[in-house]
């Protein structure tokens, strides 16, 4: 049975995991206080919540959120968690950018959509240009282009017929014959 303090921390982590679109686990063991403050500042600037969490409490929080696709092996070693609530891509980009410049911090894994991701997958998400909204816009644009072309192709004969009929009506109204 967990203590009252641990039960409160589990509830807090359960809430944060439930609200987060992505939770990125980072090993920060060995970071100096100055480096940790720099990391926290970069996370704040990217609107990513960053905190140290005990692996056992984090695992229990994942279980309470019914995240059955999460591999429990990711909850080992010292962990800090970056919770991204709005944009998965922006959160992954902020974490991977810091990790690439740090000699000590190591990207462990992430939880996205109730499943665990590898460090390579998180880095791949971080490399997506523009963020989540731009990716959605590119997909819509890719689908919309051919559909707009097909719409124009199918409506062209009807549009051309109406132009011809309108020209004939204008011609008859002006009193000239079409012969």
UniProtKB/TrEMBL annotation:
UniProt protein name = Large ribosomal subunit protein uL10
> What family name appears in the similarity comment?
Belongs to the universal ribosomal protein uL10 family.
One GO cellular component assignment for this chain's record is:
ribonucleoprotein complex
User: Is Repeat one of the keywords UniProt gives this record?
Assistant: no
* InterPro entries for the chain: Ribosomal_uL10, Ribosomal_uL10-like_sf, Ribosomal_uL10_bac_type
Note one Pfam family from the annotation.
Ribosomal_L10
Report keywords, A-Z: Ribonucleoprotein, Ribosomal protein
Q: Which domain of life is it from?
A: Bacteria
Q: Which Gene3D superfamilies match?
A: 3.30.70.1730, 6.10.250.290
**Keyword Ribosomal protein listed:** yes
Q: Which organism is it from?
A: Dictyobacter arantiisoli
* CDD domains (UniProt xref): Ribosomal_L10
């Amino acid at each position: 049975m967990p203590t009252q303090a641990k039960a409160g921390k589990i509830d807090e982590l359960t809430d944060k995991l439930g609200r987060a679109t992505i939770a990125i686990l980072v090993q920060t063991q060995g970071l100096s206080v100055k480096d940790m403050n720099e990391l926290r500042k970069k996370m704040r600037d990217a609107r990513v919540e960053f905190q140290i969490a005990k692996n056992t409490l984090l695992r229990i929080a994942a279980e309470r959120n019914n995240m059955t696709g999460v591999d429990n092996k990711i909850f080992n070693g010292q962990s800090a968690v970056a919770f991204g609530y709005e944009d998965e891509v922006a959160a992954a980009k902020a974490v991977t950018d810091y990790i690439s410049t740090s000699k000590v911090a190591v990207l462990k894994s992430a939880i996205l959509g109730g499943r665990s991701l590898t460090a390579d997958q998180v880095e791949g998400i971080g490399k997506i240009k523009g963020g989540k909204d731009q990716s959605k816009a590119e997909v819509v644009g890719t689908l919309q282009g051919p559909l707009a072309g097909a719409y124009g192709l199918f409506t062209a004969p009807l549009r051309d017929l109406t132009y011809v009929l309108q020209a004939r009506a204008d011609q008859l109204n002006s009193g000239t014959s079409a012969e």
